[in-house]
Amino acid sequence: MVPKYSQHYRADWEKMADFKEWLQPVENDTSKAYCKYCKCEMIAKLSVLRLHISSAKHRKAIEPMKSQKKINFPKVKKDLNTQKAESSLALFVCEHCAIMAVDHLSELCKYRFVDSKYSDIKLHRTKCTNIIKNVLAPHFIQEIVTDLGDQEYSLLIDESTDILVLKMLGVSIRYFSRSLKKIISTFLGLVEIEDGTAVSIVNGIKGLLAEIKINLKKLIGIGTDNASVMTGTNSGVHALLKNATGNDNLVLVRCVCHSLQLAMSHASAETLPRNVEFLIRETYNWFSHSSNRRLFYKNMFQTINGGSVPLTILQMCNTRWISIEPAVCRILDQWIELKTLFEIARRDEHCYTAEILYNMYNDPQNHLYLLYIRPILQEVQVVNKLFESNDVDPTRLYNDLIGLVESIGRRILNPTARVDILTEDIESYLDPKPYMGYAFETKLLEYNLQPNAANYLRQRFQETLKVVKPSIVEIAQEFRVNAPMIEKLVSQWRNIVHIKWESLTSTVKFWNEVMQYKDAADNNPFAELCEFAMSLISLPHSNADVERVFSQMSLVKTKLRNRLAVRTLNAILYVRFGLKRAGKCCYSYTVPDNVLRSIGTKEYYDSGSQPSTSADVDEDEDLNILFP
């Protein structure tokens, strides 16, 4: 007996001339078809459909339809001028001011530019917030995801607290952009975490990558500060991420800027007297809250220097000892004037602080201390800024760091010593009377100190440089690959020297040229080597980008805007960093048409845009705090 099979509805029937006007499928039932003229269901068989056409019921139902003429309306292209204006205003608000300002800004445009084609714009706080969160921010996120593709990348992570003392995890991403042909280091997201434990941080990273749809397995390196929660061997963030990614070769790069800072702090704490830091800090504090003191000092300075205006005494950061460098330079440039100021202040104001500062300025040893540390701080600051920059060649940074260590080390070594500062013990090669710099030696002769005092200073400074040496030398961990790949890389590296390359001054430009090279078969014989090189270049060298994220967070979420929700804060930062990545401003960036069309659609609104009285209020109202 031949088995029977039930017929299912076929969409192809709707294209047939006899059926296309009236045939429709039945929802949730593929065994039936529907006639929209007769408003009835039938079995989904071709023979049944043909019988239905010839039925009296169908002929009677279709008769009125034959006499009606079908009007074909031409497709009208939707005008996106209004959406362009709204998106531009939203970009402006993101980059320059609070969202609440758009209430008046849009009305101003409407009333003052009545003859403009954008005069019908309707943009206020709620709509602007939705454009930022649901249109612009996803657009810039998708740009990163599309540009990254399936490439390997590194993450820069750090934690901080916002104005509401919420613990935030800042995440930046670093990768090679094939479309822009350069290294991109940009903001990826802020994540609110419960505490500062490694588990909480790793969960925050995994949640962020899953939300943005970036493959965690492609992570090849992380850049962190030197905190134990980040670098712990067994339960640190690095160790947990190695387990999460399944990559035992996940590279950990401790921020060199933090290492330099720790080295300088350690060296100063161990060897320099505490009064040096006190002098710098209290000199700034003397002027920080008194306009009268500033005016008096300005008049006195102009009297001494023939009308010249003094530069402001700078503040040193309590957590960054390297920040002392510009403050030291300002104080040394105005040493005589400051000494005179505190001499007058202790006499006229009978101020104990002024008397202490005058005694310190009158002590030649303090002057010599600052003259000694100034050139060292300047050298360290130069290297520190190189590591903070995104425009430097990453392959040359190691040489700059080694040059800094050798430069500082040679100050205390015997000039004839043949020693490798990085690997050998330098104790037996120390110069008994090291040269401390021109400014120091000149002032030392001028002050005519006792020989014991001069030798004491030299010995103390020598100890400072010895402390610096082991703390700042940190070499990135070796980047390992499997044996078969190493053989390919060695072969390609051996052959790459036989090609005449043009871009030899820049590492990134050179590997871009290698990436575009084709042989006679139109293949790239150095493909694996290029991938490996770009992965290495994508490794971080400092955490400066995450610090910039926190700076922007502090500018956006202020005391007046302290109710800004994390999602809105993230959206604003996505737009800001997206504009920076594109090298555009709010007036020059062109939002794609497909993105503009989503403005005003149903998907553009969500439940998060509704007013809320919960703790996580999603508002941007500065004045709610002043006028509740």
TrEMBL record:
Domain of life: Eukaryota
GO molecular function terms noted in the UniProt entry: protein dimerization activity
Pfam families (alphabetical): Dimer_Tnp_hAT
InterPro entries listed in its UniProt record: HATC_C_dom
Domain HAT C-terminal dimerisation: 521-577
Name used for this protein in its record: (apollo) hypothetical protein
Phylogenetic lineage: Eukaryota, Metazoa, Ecdysozoa, Arthropoda, Hexapoda
